[in-house]
Design goal:
Layout lengths: L1 E5 L5 H10 L3 E5 L3 H6 L3 E2 L3 H5 L4 E4 L4 H14 L5 E4 L5 H7 L5 E4 L2 E2 L1 H7 L2 E7 L1 H14 E8 L3 H29 L4 H9 L6 H11 L9 H18 L4 H15 L10 H8 L2
Parallel strand pairs: 1-2, 1-4, 2-3, 4-5, 5-6, 8-9
Antiparallel strand pairs: 6-8, 7-8
Helix pairs in contact: 1-6, 8-10, 8-11, 8-12, 8-13, 9-10, 11-12, 12-13
Length: about 280
Amino acid sequence: MNVAFVGLGIMGLPMATNLTKAGYVVTAYDVSPARMESFDGKTATGAGAAVAEADLVVTMLPDSPQVEEVAPEIAAHGRPGLLWADMSTIRPETARWAAGLGVRTLDAPVSGGERGAIDGTLSIMAGGAEADFAAALPVFRVLGKTIVHVGPAGAGQTVKAANQLVVGGIYGLVAEAIVLLEASGVDPGKGLDVLAGGLAGSRVLDLKRTSMIVREFVPGFRIDLHHKDMGIALAAAREAGVALPLTGQVAQLVAAARAQGHGSLDHSALLKVIERLNS
């Protein structure tokens, strides 16, 4: 299977690399020449050129506008029967729009961050036709471990919105736990070690508690992107006609982090917002 890969950012580059290591012929494109130079494989001059000989194209882009920008190229230059798996995190309505362009599409956003992309252990939540999901499954199995077909077009993005509101909430609560432990004179490392082994345990605690305690916020997933995702979650709630009050509070914390100039930091930098509230 020939695979085109569009988007070689923090997540996309290791994902494309893993596909190459698994034996797929991958042709990649990114708007950044430097990122393309970092990819140890074939590159193309544009999204259209990348998909010209592909059986499957994966897009891993920052937001809906970028997906909407490359969609016409994919539709125009892809061969008949091309399967497009958009693994970006975008609005559900954008995913449904893409499904109407005459290309077989899956909206298949991921969770697991940079570490999951590098290790090939991402969670993949896919919306679209069952037959298309089955066709993409061998590729998905290279990229992730938890892979679920969650429903029709747009469903994958709705599940991702739910994922992001949960992740954001956990980061906020871990940040509050650190502030409480430190203000009380308790070693936060030992305290969070205990939490991680009990009912409060989570992947956030497993992967991020040490870096949060020492205030290292090198981005695996930037505040800017989580801000965008919380907007998607709130819009999805509005469309579904449901109230998500805690999600609204988390969205405000993420927005505050961005307003305070932390947009380029990892989303664990919500700790800086909680600290500022207590200074």
